[in-house]
Design brief:
Blueprint: H1 2-26, H2 36-55, E1 59-62, H3 64-91, H4 99-122, E2 132-135, H5 142-170, H6 174-178, H7 187-191, H8 212-234, H9 238-243, H10 251-271, H11 279-301, H12 312-316, H13 321-340
Antiparallel strand pairs: 1-2
Helix pairs in contact: 1-4, 1-5, 2-3, 2-5, 4-10, 8-10, 10-11, 11-13
């Protein structure tokens, strides 16, 4: 479990940066009533990652314990999707989700997908073994396992603080929570300036009305990618048996492919909350869906891959070209309108 342990360390460092830089310093969501829902998701993530930090570097989980670990991974994916859906409303009055946090979340999603893929790769025999929890420390320096234990305590404490903050904010009187606040009041009211002399900011801009078909397309794409990626990671040989192709000697590479596809799915679900604002995710997705078939064509034409594998491009790539391009076109028009209206970034 050396590689999963190092992967978990990277994920813990990224999560700590997210909590300290964005949740606490940048926005202080534990004191903001609109962030109650987001705080609940964070409180659930606390004990989840505390368990991962303690068990993965120190134990082999066989039988029912292995399936419990897989269920914990699925639970965390559900929390992440819920968190993505809540973040826009939670941060709207604070100026929206910072671009740095948005990028950090994408990196964390990739690190989490890599963690799951490596666990399923190196611990694939755990699921068929008799149920037992075997103490087997990973072959890493002891100081690293100590650091992860400290991270477990810290993330559990952070989750408890988030839960306490959510309870405290939930008791705020309706008059106080619904009344004007210093953060939500227009800028010209704070500075006693005439409204026309104050430049608009992105937080002051009117909310765009996003067509429902865009969200539907991205939700479908996200769910498809998650299911396809999970099937490839859990059953790496099934696809090759289905198309009658030779099974690769290194299934770990196929595990990584499934992980990458699943991470794209998380990104699409995140972008579904506001497709126009998160056009960059859709652009990267469309770029991959264009380059993928080109690479497939090159490999098939040169005999590196069997032609039967090209069928994957139909459902993985080609059917998404038009809807993704249409969303990007609308996003481009929306961005032009946003800037020409005099709204600053």
């Amino acid at each position: 479990m050396e590689i999963p342990t190092y992967n978990l360390l990277i994920l813990g460092c990224l999560g700590a940066a997210d909590i300290l830089l964005f949740h606490s310093l940048a926005h202080g969501i534990r004191s903001h009533p609109d962030s109650i829902g987001e705080l609940v998701t964070h409180s659930l993530r606390g004990p989840t990652y505390a368990a991962l930090f303690l068990f993965i570097p120190n134990f082999e989980m066989h039988g029912a314990f292995a399936w419990a670990l897989l269920a914990l991974f699925v639970f965390d994916v559900g929390i992440s999707i819920w968190d993505f859906a809540l973040e826009q409303g939670s941060r709207r009055s604070l100026g929206g989700l910072p671009s740095g946090e948005y990028v950090l979340h994408m990196i964390m999603a990739g690190a989490f997908g890599s963690l799951v893929a490596t666990i399923l790769c190196f611990g694939q025999d755990w699921f068929t073994a008799p149920t037992r929890l075997l103490y087997a420390p990973a072959g890493v320096p002891s100081i690293l396992r100590l650091i992860l234990a400290i991270m477990a305590i810290a993330v559990l404490a952070s989750g408890i603080q988030d839960a306490a903050a959510a309870l405290r904010l939930g008791k705020v009187s309706p008059e106080r929570s619904s009344g004007p606040s210093a953060q939500s009041a227009p800028l010209h009211q704070h500075r006693n300036l005439p409204e026309e002399s104050v430049p608009l900011t992105r937080a002051d801009a009117p909310v765009r009305q996003t067509p429902s078909w865009m969200r539907l397309v991205l939700v479908l794409a996200g769910v498809y990618n998650l299911l396809w990626g999970a099937r490839v990671v859990i059953f790496p040989e099934a696809f090759f048996r289905w198309i009658g192709a030779p099974i690769p000697n290194y299934p770990q590479i196929w595990h990584c492919v499934g992980m990458i596809v699943g991470v794209y799915g998380v990104g699409y679900l995140f972008a579904a909350a506001d497709p126009i604002r998160h056009w960059a995710i859709i652009f990267v997705g469309l770029l991959g869906k264009v380059l993928g078939p080109l690479g497939m064509w090159w490999s098939v034409s040169h005999g590196s891959l069997p032609a039967s594998m090209a069928w994957t491009c139909l459902t993985n790539d080609l059917i998404w070209w038009m809807p993704f391009a249409a969303i990007l076109f609308q996003a481009f028009r929306g961005q032009r309108h946003f800037y020409f209206a005099g709204v600053r970034r």
